[in-house]
Amino acid sequence: MSLWGTLTGKKTSSTSSNASSSSSSSSSTPSQDTAPTTSFQSTPFDPTTAQDVTSFLGNTSLPDPSQLHPLAGLNQQSLDYLSLDESALSDLPGSRSALPSRGWSDDLQYGTGVTYLSALTLGGSYGMIEGLRRTPASAPPKIRLNSVLNSITRRGPFLGNSAGIIAMVYNGINSTIGYYRGKHDSANSVAAGALSGMLFKSTRGLRPMMISGGIVAGVAGVWTVMRKTLF
């Protein structure tokens, strides 16, 4: 830069004119860094073209789930151990009773259980009445309650245990006689009642044995008549 130009300022004016001209040209020309604006249109979804799980579950390479069962491939008709023969009811003539029976085991359980509970209830009721009668009406409530409980626990279990033992022996003898005779009838029940009653009192002598056998045989005969009438 010359001294004259420095003094007159011509260089500065030309420089500023060049700067202004370059700025105007840059403003008139669009910037190359600006992203171009474009319009986007989405394609509508078609459900018929979608794939579900059957596209890969239906592959033949997958194993058959039915073949994974432990009994797969076995002939069920040849599995005899699955047939429950014990569920069949007894087919002996005269074996039908109040409850379905499959044999001597059911008769033993039903007969012994029902007889024991019935005798226990009757003995307890008799003991309660006996305890109330023995205690005077002017006695305190605690004494009356104690007397009733003592009578119930003395009469109920005694009668229930005795009847349960007789019923157990009766059902065993009755089932044995029916097995060898091939049928259940009144003669079986009366004979089983007489034998079980005599066996129950066998340690008391001949007279108590005959009385007990007659009582149990009579009860068995009444039960046989009721079973034929009702069932």
Task: Write up what this structure looks like.
It is a single chain. Helices cover 61% and strands 0% of the residues. It is an all-alpha fold and 231 residues long. The radius of gyration is 53 Å and the shape is elongated. It is built from 7 helices and no strands. The chain has helices at 3-8, 10-28, 54-57, 104-134, 141-181, 186-200, 206-230. The N and C termini lie far apart (142 Å).
Question: What features would you highlight for this structure?
Answer:
231 residues, mainly alpha, 7 helices, 0% strand, elongated
Task: Please provide a brief summary of the model.
The protein is mostly helical and 231 residues long.
Topology (SSEs and partners):
Layout lengths: L2 H6 L1 H19 L25 H4 L46 H31 L6 H41 L4 H15 L5 H25 L1
What general outline do the C-alpha atoms trace? elongated
Helix percent reads 55-70%
Q: Ends: how far apart?
A: 142 Å
Q: How many beta strands in the DSSP annotation?
A: 0
